[in-house]
Amino acid sequence: MDPSPDVPLPFRIVALMQERNRLLAYPLEQMASDIWSTRFRCTACGACCTREVNSHIFLLDHDVSVVRTLDPHAYEPAPDPEFCDQNGMLYVSGYALRMKNDTHGSCWFLENGKCRIYDQRFSVCHIYPHMLRRSAGTPGHVTWRQFARKNEHGRCDPALPFEECLVLAREVKEYENAFLTQQISFLETIYEYFTLNNLRHDPEVYKQTAQRYLYGEPVDISVFHAGELELFTRGTVPKDS
Ligand code: SF4
Question: What is the pTM of this model?
Answer without folding.
Answer: 0.89
